[in-house]
């Protein structure tokens, strides 16, 4: 989980810049649809396809994290510093976990794999406070 990646060169895009601003202004780990709905009032010509395309580009550039948990839509994080997440198994909500990243895990994995490990991602799974109060 390194910082910015080497990537293709893209022309500057006001839409991409605004998408990045929105992601960096929230801790909610939103979906592409949420980002689209946030920007649409001030960018009436914006399409959902444009949001998805620019989110992919921002991910390639290392400007955002793309969180894929397999059971729901991708979520996006404007905080690219190494950190852990807690994912609700019912609603898909993603929260940051305020624990220091354990670099020792990288060293242990490198020993077992006999090759360099550049970082790791770790997700904790469970139910958010809202879903814990719901009955099935």
Describe this structure in words.
Helix content is 35%, strand content 14%. The protein has 136 residues and is of the alpha+beta class. The chain folds into two domains: 1-81, Orthogonal Bundle (Arc Repressor Mutant, subunit A); 82-136, Ferric-uptake regulator, C-terminal dimerisarion domain (Dna Ligase, domain 1). The strands form two sheets. The chain has a three-stranded mixed beta sheet with strand order 4-3-5, with no helix packed on it. A hairpin with a 5-residue loop joins strand 3 and strand 4. The chain starts with 13 loop residues before the first helix and ends with a helix. The mean pLDDT is 91.
List descriptors.
Dna Ligase, domain 1, alpha+beta, three-stranded mixed β-sheet, 2 domains, 5 helices, 136 residues, two-stranded antiparallel ribbon, Arc Repressor Mutant, subunit A
Quick recap:
The chain has 5 helices and 5 strands, in the order αααββββαβα. It has helices at 14-24, 32-39, 48-60, 103-113, 129-132; strands at 65-67, 75-77, 84-88, 94-97, 123-126.
Low-pLDDT residue intervals, each spanning 5 or more residues: none
Name the CATH superfamily classification of the largest domain.
Answer: Winged helix-like DNA-binding domain superfamily/Winged helix DNA-binding domain
CATH architecture of the largest domain: Orthogonal Bundle
What does the radius of gyration come to?
A: 17 Å
Coarse structural class: alpha+beta
Q: For the largest beta sheet, what order do the strands appear in spatially?
A: 4-3-5
Tell me the domain tally.
Answer: 2
β-strand percent reads 5-15%
Q: Helix and strand string, N-terminal first?
A: HHHEEEEHEH
How many strand units?
5
**Cα-to-Cα separation, first versus last residue:** 37 Å
CATH top level label of the largest domain: Mainly Alpha
Number of helices: 5
Overall outline: globular
């Amino acid at each position: 989980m390194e910082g910015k990646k080497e990537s293709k060169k893209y022309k500057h895009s006001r839409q991409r810049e605004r998408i990045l601003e929105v992601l960096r202004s929230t801790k909610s780990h939103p979906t592409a649809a949420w980002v689209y709905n946030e920007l649409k009032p001030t960018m009436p010509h914006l399409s959902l396809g444009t949001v998805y395309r620019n989110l992919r580009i921002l991910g390639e550039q290392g400007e955002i994290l793309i969180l894929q948990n397999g059971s729901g839509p991708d979520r996006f994080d404007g905080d690219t510093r190494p950190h852990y997440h807690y994912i609700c198994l019912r609603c898909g909500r993603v929260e940051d976990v305020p624990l220091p990243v354990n670099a020792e895990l990288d060293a242990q994995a490198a020993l077992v794999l006999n090759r360099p490990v550049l970082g790791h991602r770790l997700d904790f799974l469970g139910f958010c406070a809202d879903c814990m109060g719901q009955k099935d």
